[in-house]
What does this fold into?
Amino acid sequence: MDRRSTLLLIVTCLVLVFWYPLMNRIYPPVPLPTNVVAKATGGATGTNASATAPGAASLPVAGAPPVAAARPGIAESGFLPSAEPATEVVLENELGRYVFTSQGGGLKTVELKEHADAFLCRDRKAGAPLPRAVMNRHATAPIMVALGLDGAGEGTPYRMSRSNEVVVAERTLTNGVRLVKEFRLGTNYLVHVTTRLQNWSATAAALPSQEWVFGTAEPLHQGEQSMYLGMFSHDGSSSEHIGEGFFANRTLGCIPGTPKSEYVGQSTNLAWAAVHNQFFATIAIPRDRSTRLFARHVDLPGMVATGSQVPLVGYQAAFLYPAEELPSQQQRVREFDLYVGPKDYKTVAGLGNNADVVMGFDNYFGGRFSGFFARALLLAMNGLHKVGLSYAMAIIAITVIVRLLFWPLMAASARTSKRMAALQPQIKELQERYKDNPQRLNQKMLELWREHKVNPAAGCVPILIQFPILLGFYSMLQTAIELRGESFLWACDLAQPDTIAMVMGYPVNPLPLLMGATMLWQARLTPMSPSMDATQQKIMKYMPLMFMVFLYTFSAGLTLYWTVSNLLSILQMKLTKARDEKTTVAAPSPGRPAAPAPRKPRPPGRSSK
It folds into this structure.
């Protein structure tokens, strides 16, 4: 590699590393306004579930008044707590500890007993107990807080009570309507919620448009990346994902633009909606589906960006309901099922309505096709773990199995590449002869390939077949909660980078470095296409360094898979090359007679006639 190419490669890697800090300095992000005026929600279609008070007529569900043009009194955080001390009520089961608060009358936090907050190598070596994962800990609003219903009285505390493992939060709104919320724990991280807006007065009451917050997408701990935060909505047939990219509103995905502060979903027939981080999710399933998703960008005061005092961001999500009139002696009843727990595939899939979409397997290039492989690979990894393999060994075993399945195709591809390389002198001769006649050149090259029984496309087929599996591995290993806390060699947590030291503020991650080294080794062993010029060949040979930069901070489980896959590819290339050389030595060259067998030596003293 010449000096100019080396310099270009170094500059490219430096640009990749420092791109985002450089763009943030050149184009400083525009701060969000301190107060956000809510957008119009439009008239939602569908009907709401209703219940009738004793002796009262049923509530009509048709002809609801239009939604107000704005929802005044809702700050950017969406919740204005009272200055009065909060009252808390706690429910517990074998899976979690649920804390309910009078500030907003909702679920403040959920402490997951079977999952740790973060796995730090130093804590493990010291034998310190690991703190439990706590969901909604940094959120500015509790789960199932109702916003927009009470104007200036929004922050009035609720009266909290507990009876027979049911927590009840209730208060009277300024218009005389009684708001009652009942929370009951279920199995498998479920919480059943029933809300009632009761108008026992003699006149009808106007209910403004309202948000029922069901969770906040927030990092679980300080080191978690914001790229994994987001929201899902599902209408029974299709899903939509909203993440950091929507709110950042970057030009071409990298140049900072004017941030967006709110999102209003278009679908008004939601089967469920969810907020999530990398490994945990809150999924809300409304019993009636006459709602749409609303979300806002919020700062998380309890968490700040590393090395600064800037608060980390989260995305508060809510169900949006239109304004309506509540007749006298009627109540509006809405029921929800809340799943607040890990993104465990088997448990989440059991919720129905394609709730396993929240795993994020279908969000990558390839969509549902690569998502199918991600689910299959996850089930295979869990199956191998059940028979006694560690998760690291299960990843290695799956990699070996996949490589063995594709061994014949990869061997055929290698032989095709070698034959193409052998034809390179003849191809260059044709290119020189017919450089002024491209059509004639293509015809002659096709004849040459047909004569030597070479198909140039054969080398791409194995790569195209394996690409969905590669994407499936990528998406599965990035969000597989089974890998949290699983160690392998020096990596104490396969779900995080395998950092062993910090040098001048930069982490030292051995597995990505090994992955890059094996990719460079593999690139040097792979025959280049004769149609590539010298510059293209150099780019292809040193492109692994770019992949190493991209994947340097990814999970150790992913880089372990990639490193093992590279080593198996190198082994296959070596074995294929050794077999071809042995075959070449054993067989005579085409067009030449076989060498005559050596004569036996004659006895001394006897001459030939």
Q: What stands out?
A: Residues 26-77 have pLDDT under 50 and may be disordered. Residues 556-586 form the longest helix (31 residues). Residues 264 and 294 are 5 Å apart (CA to CA).
